[in-house]
Amino acid sequence: MRITxxxxxxxxxLATFVVLFAAWFVLTSVTxxxxxGRFPSPREAWDALLQIAVTGYADARLAAHVVQSVKLxxxxxxxxxxxxxxxxxxxxxxxxxxxxxxxxxxxxxPIPPLAWIPLAIVWLGLGDAAKVLVIWFAxxxxxxxxxxxxxxxxEPHLIEAAxxxxxxxxxxxxxxxxxxxxxxxxxxxxxxxxACWTTLVAAELIGAIAGLGHVLYQSSLDLFPAMIVVGMxxxxxxxxxxxxxxxxxxxxxxPWRGAIMRTMAPPPGAARGxxxxxxxAA
Length: 282
Prior knowledge:
Number of strands: 0
Mean pLDDT: 83
CATH superfamily: MetI-like
Oligomer: single chain
Shape: globular
CATH architecture: Orthogonal Bundle
Strand content: under 5%
Largest sheet: none
CATH topology: MetI-like fold
Distance between the termini: 19 Å
Structural class: mainly alpha
Number of domains: 1
């Protein structure tokens, strides 16, 4: 079995999709164990995909729905990063800032993002701004927490060493604080991006005329399971693509982290050697 640079077997993920698709096809099209009224067959899902891509569904075609949803997610995510990351870094760096902000943050943190929908409508109406606000809150909390944790995870002796070498406050923040917190920051960004897509469907219930969440809502009203599956796959693929892009950015910003992971991974021949040793022992 071929091993990737990070130690994971190649082809396992692809095999998982093949097995799931085969099970889907058999249960819905061959044995009819699952009724078509509850879950569509692959052919029905394909027909629904062609319908929304070519003729349109829920007031728009698939491309327009995807663009609208991606736009809302990007706006909410960007706003959360712009506000949440500096706030988390400041709370982690300064005890005074933490003491001032933390009580309010602890109060709003347990509030579910969906609970902000009524206020979002009152404040901003039924336009995109209300949807962005709900998505922003879903992404805001993970960004703050992980930025804060990233700063607090930096070894104190590194900060002291930088100060002894004469580093100014700006150098200390730029050369020690932010680079040291980056791994945790990117973990928070991944969680925030996932939270954005999780909240998207509910956010697009606020007077939406396009978007993948609107497709899911309309297809549920129409009792159209095949279109529901298409909408879910659209959310999954869009979210996965944005997560992959975030991973590319992370690799560009922190190339040294990939080098560390490669040094921790077993050499290419290690897996075959372990397999041969196991076979000999058996």
